């Protein structure tokens, strides 16, 4: 069986170049066993769905955790017996223990940042869209692509197991700063839970590298005839830079983790120095706790853009398609992506202004950080101009793309406060930070993802999702996001620190208790509203209205030239040739308002 | 039983969602898909406008609700600059926020799909790109300029006359140390730490330690109008000295000494009047997650007048004296132990290991 899989994989990759083995594929496809077709599949479309569904499961778990700790934050003096059902002795009598509160906060961050918004987002859309939009039969290495998913799957299993160990999962925050994360004496979560966390994350890095290298080589090498780089849709550009960011920065994170593993288990002192804990002085001398933060944020900041760029790419695509207008400033969009990618590597230390890092070094990072606002602003203005004088169809993906832009503006602007060290010195590690990054890389990235899911669901499953449910989902989530995170900015400006279990002993912060309760209630509503999406998603896979046309949105890009339910290999015949850029939303001369990329230029028509 | 009820409720909700979905699809088909699509499009355009208007109203309400819950005037000189800069940044970003959001929602409404509308084919315009690259660049450059000026002031060397106070974080409280009459903080060594009688690991071979005063209750006394330099350390994991009322913050990192300095402007008593809150107290919050007691790692700052501070200081016993009541002179900080007695005492007190 495995031999057949490998052969087929190789064949498919080959077919991408030759483009004439299409007929062969038709019957290959029929012979596939359930296991090779749906489980150990090498078809990029199936792998995309695997990433997406695993991501959805993780998103529910991660969001449920936030509901648990929001209950504690909103109602610190009440008990919730239901919570004991879920968490057992961690919530004895329905009251969350501080240890497990911190474990939940940590896992919420880890799960959503890495497992949902990295693997679930770029894993899904890079896999789905790259071959389909550049005109390839599959990834450069379908086998590596399959491994990428399965490494992610094993990482998921390890992380999931860590939730059930007796001392609880890692609880030092998703950034797991040592010495807290390095010393078992410092926190019970720094025991086995932390070991499992590190193992899981190491596997995750492997998955991410296998995927990223594949995405880059596929985009660079396997474009169909006529698909020059400058004819690629912006989704592909965005996914290309996402992969570049991941490939260059994840290894640095990995090295940081290796050193942490050594400090934890083999008595080294990379991060540890002059520590007295648990009643005794430790022998470690000469390490630097700040070193870990440099290594972590060297990934940690690009990670933010790993999360944002796919959303930006998909929003660009969706805004253009559903406004029936070309994306405005295609080249400016690419240049700003380049700018963001390059700067993403040069701003990491803005997370560390108050760590005691040299203030002069801090100044340089202020300059570079605020510089990144320029390409971001260019993107926003280009999106606004894209919908200007369009013919806007408020389909569910379009609603989410508009929400994405709105949230990106809101969350991006608060970054200008935090990137300026002289303002960060007060706002650092307060709720202002929580509000900022949740709006911009949490909710906004989610909106980009939702836009993508609603837009490409018909391509994935050959059916539509239900619009009515989608609109409910949109408005509840959109309003909820602002209701939750807008007031948090004020709490942050008032100095309220993040990651507190209870504020009631604090004279300076206790008067926010009713606001915290309000936020928690909205969190619960928004959490349950996500089930509208989940029901819609899973029911529509089997019962949704069937597509009657292969191109339901009237889009120009290549994925819509495939059959409604494309088999492995994507195009039954030859891969189409590309003759124009991806955004020819204009009169086609026959009353249509778009010209697909596969249509040759007419006599006298100028290429973009 | 409750488990059963939960399952019933969940399945009911599921069925309701599913039925809404189905009903809406049948209704669409019955009423004609094209017609419904147009109606929905118009409805969504209006809902987005409504969202924007309600949103702006919500921001206004939020502002009013929060007005009396924010921090009082800054209690430090740095903080006054800080508040000014914060306000400038609010104005700059606020203007951009309202313009771009208004355009987004307005364009969405104005250019909603109708039969008559032909989208305007506009692919690029380099002049526009140039304009909206340059303007943000200039705005950012000015914010950076203001920021760096303030940053260099905030992080500059503390003035010579600054009062020096050490603050050390440990799980889960703050320990404060004053240098005593000699104005010098003696050497510390983490290997000499002992929770019973040497909480910071003072090195008794260093004479400068003899008159150092330690407060284990996390209460820091500083003087109005006199710059104070905090020498920050940690015994175990990373903590962070958060001083929201002074608009200051700095990590406490094991193995590294960090510092900040500021000048308090109002005594605690004055601040009670300013805020109208008789319970007002300057608080030190730990702002870097440090373990299960992170949220309770609370310190306080008492800002007092020079005279009050002197009187308070005189009442304090040196840590050495507290730990060695019999051997040492009842040293208050004004009495500098002579070299002779100190040396003797130190020899006797040198940790046995």
Structure write-up:
The complex is a heterodimer of chains A (608) and B (353). Chain A is mostly helical and 608 residues long. Chain A contains 18 helices and two strands. Chain A has helices at residues 2-18, 22-31, 34-39, 44-74, 81-87, 98-134, 142-162, 192-221, 234-265, 289-323, 330-344, 359-371, 373-387, 396-419, 421-427, 431-461, 467-493, 513-543, and strands spanning 276-277, 280-281. Chain B is an alpha+beta fold and 353 residues long. In chain B, 46% of the residues lie in helices and 16% in strands. The N and C termini of chain B lie far apart (63 Å). In chain B, strand 6 (239-243) and strand 7 form a beta hairpin. At the A-B interface, helix 6, strand 1, helix 10, helix 11 and helix 12 of A face helix 1, helix 2, helix 3, helix 4 and strand 7 of B.
Shape of chain B: elongated
Question: Which word captures the global form of chain A?
Answer: globular
Give the distance, in angstroms, between the N- and C-terminal Cα atoms of chain B. Answer: 63 Å
Oligomer: heterodimer
- State the order of secondary-structure elements of chain A, H for helix, E for strand: HHHHHHHHHEEHHHHHHHHH
Number of helices of chain B: 8
Distance between the termini of chain A: 48 Å
Secondary-structure-derived class of chain B: alpha+beta
Task: Please indicate the percent range of residues of chain B in DSSP E strands (runs of 2 or more).
Answer: 15-25%
Give the integer mean of the pLDDT values of chain B.
89
The biggest sheet of chain B, with number of strands, parallel, antiparallel or mixed sense and barrel status, is:
5 strands, mixed
Largest sheet of chain A: 2 strands, antiparallel
Task: Kindly state the percentage of residues in helix of chain A.
Answer: 55-70%
Number of helices of chain A: 18
- Which sequence of strands runs across the widest sheet of chain A? 1-2
User: SSE order of chain B, as H and E?
Assistant: HHHHEEEEEEEEHEEHHH
Q: Spans of chain A of 5+ residues with little confidence (pLDDT < 50)?
A: 1-29
Total beta strands of chain A: 2
- Rg of chain B over CA atoms, rounded to whole Å, is 31 Å
Task: Detail the poorly predicted runs of chain B.
Answer: 330-353
How many β strands of chain B by DSSP?
10
């Amino acid at each position: 069986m495995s031999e057949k899989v490998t052969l087929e994989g190789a064949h498919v990759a080959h077919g991408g170049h030759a483009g004439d083995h299409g007929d062969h594929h038709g019957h290959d496809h029929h012979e596939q066993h359930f296991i090779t077709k749906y489980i150990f599949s090498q078809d990029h479309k199936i792998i995309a769905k695997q990433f997406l569904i695993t991501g959805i499961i993780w998103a529910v778990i991660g969001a449920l955790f936030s509901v648990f700790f929001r209950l504690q934050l909103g109602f610190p003096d009440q008990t919730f017996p239901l919570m004991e059902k879920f968490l057992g002795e961690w919530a004895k009598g329905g009251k969350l223990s501080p240890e497990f509160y911190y474990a939940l906060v940590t896992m919420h961050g880890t799960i959503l940042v890495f497992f949902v918004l990295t693997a679930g987002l770029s894993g899904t859309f890079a896999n789905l869209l790259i071959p389909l939009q550049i005109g390839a039969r599959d990834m450069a290495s379908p086998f590596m692509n399959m491994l990428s998913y399965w490494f992610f799957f094993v990482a998921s299993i390890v992380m999931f197991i860590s939730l059930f160990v007796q001392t609880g999962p890692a609880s030092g925050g998703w950034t797991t700063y040592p010495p807290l994360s390095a010393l078992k004496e410092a926190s019970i979560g720094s025991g086995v839970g932390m070991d499992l966390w590190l193992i899981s994350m190491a596997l995750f890095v492997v998955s991410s590298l296998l995927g990223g290298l594949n995405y880059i080589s596929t985009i660079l090498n396997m474009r169909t005839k006529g698909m020059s780089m400058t004819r690629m849709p912006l989704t592909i550009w965005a996914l290309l830079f996402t992969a570049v960011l991941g490939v260059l920065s994840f290894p640095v994170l990995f090295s940081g983790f290796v050193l942490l593993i050594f400090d934890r288990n083999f008595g080294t002192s990379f991060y540890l120095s002059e520590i007295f804990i648990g009643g005794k002085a430790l022998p470690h001398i000469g390490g630097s706790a700040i070193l870990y933060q440099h290594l972590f944020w060297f990934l940690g900041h690009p990670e933010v853009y790993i999360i944002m760029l796919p959303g930006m790419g998909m929003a660009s695509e969706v805004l253009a398609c559903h406004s029936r207008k070309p994306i405005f400033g295609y080249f400016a969009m690419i240049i700003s992506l380049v700018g963001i990618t390059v700067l993403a590597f040069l701003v990491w230390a803005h997370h560390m202004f108050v760590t005691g890092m040299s203030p002069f070094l801090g100044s340089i990072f202020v300059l570079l950080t605020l510089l990144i606002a320029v390409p971001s602003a260019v993107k926003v203005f280009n999106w606004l101009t894209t919908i200007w004088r369009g013919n806007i169809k408020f389909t569910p993906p379009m609603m989410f793309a508009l929400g994405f832009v709105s949230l990106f503006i809101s969350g991006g602007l608060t970054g200008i406060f935090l990137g300026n060290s002289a303002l960060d010195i007060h706002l650092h590690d307060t709720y202002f930070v929580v509000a900022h990054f949740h709006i911009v890389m949490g909710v906004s990235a989610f909106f980009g993802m939702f836009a993508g899911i609603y837009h490409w669901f018909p391509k994935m499953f050959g059916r539509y999702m239900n619009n009515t449910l989608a609109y409910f989902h949109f408005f509840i989530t959109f309003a909820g996001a602002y209701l939750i995170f807008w007031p948090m900015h004020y709490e942050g400006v008032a100095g309220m620190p993040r990651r507190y279990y209870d504020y009631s002993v604090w004279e300076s912060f206790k008067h926010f208790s009713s606001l915290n309760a309000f936020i928690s209630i909205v969190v619960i509503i928004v959490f349950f509203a996500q089930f509208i999406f989940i029901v819609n998603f899973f029911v529509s896979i089997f019962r949704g209205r069937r597509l009657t046309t292969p191109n339901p949105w009237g889009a120009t890009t290549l994925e819509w030239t495939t059959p409604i339910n494309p088999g492995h290999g994507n195009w039954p015949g030859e891969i189409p040739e590309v003759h124009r850029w991806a955004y020819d939303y204009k009169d086609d001369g026959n009353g249509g308002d778009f010209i697909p990329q596969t249509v040759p230029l007419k006599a006298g028509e100028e290429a973009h | 039983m409750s488990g059963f009820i939960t399952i019933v409720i969940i399945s009911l909700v599921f069925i309701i969602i599913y039925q809404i979905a189905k009903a809406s699809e049948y209704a669409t088909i019955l009423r004609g898909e094209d017609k419904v699509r147009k109606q929905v499009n118009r409805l969504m355009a209006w809902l987005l406008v409504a969202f924007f208007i309600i949103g702006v109203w919500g921001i206004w309400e939020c502002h009013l609700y929060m007005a009396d819950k924010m921090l009082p005037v800054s209690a430090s000189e740095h903080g006054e600059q800080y508040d000014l800069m914060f306000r400038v940044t609010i104005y700059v970003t606020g203007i951009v926020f309202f313009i771009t959001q208004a355009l987004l929602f307005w364009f969405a409404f104005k250019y909603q799909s109708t039969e008559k509308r032909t989208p305007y084919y506009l692919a690029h315009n380099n002049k526009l790109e140039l304009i909206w690259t340059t303007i943000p660049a200039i705005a950012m450059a000015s914010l950076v300029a203001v920021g760096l000026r303030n940053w260099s002031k905030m992080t500059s060397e503390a003035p010579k006359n600054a009062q020096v106070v050490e603050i050390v974080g440990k799980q889960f409280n703050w320990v404060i140390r004053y240098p005593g009459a000699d104005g010098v903080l003696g050497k510390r060594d983490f290997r000499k730490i002992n929770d019973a009688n040497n909480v910071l690991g003072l090195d008794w071979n260093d004479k400068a330690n003899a008159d150092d005063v330690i407060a284990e209750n996390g209460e820091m006394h500083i003087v109005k109008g006199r710059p104070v330099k905090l020498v920050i350390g940690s015994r175990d994991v990373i903590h962070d000295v958060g001083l929201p009322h002074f608009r200051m913050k700095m990590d406490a990192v094991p193995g590294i000494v960090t510092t900040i300095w500021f000048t308090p402007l109002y005594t605690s008593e004055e601040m009670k009047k300013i805020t109208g809150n008789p319970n007002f107290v300057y608080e030190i919050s730990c702002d870097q997650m440090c373990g299960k007691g992170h949220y309770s790692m609370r310190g306080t700052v008492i800002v007092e007048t020079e005279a009050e501070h002197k009187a308070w200081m005189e009442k304090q016993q040196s840590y050495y004296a507290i730990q060695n009541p019999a051997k040492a002179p009842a040293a208050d900080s004004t009495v500098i132990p002579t070299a002779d007695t100190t040396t003797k005492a130190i020899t006797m007190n040198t940790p046995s290991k």
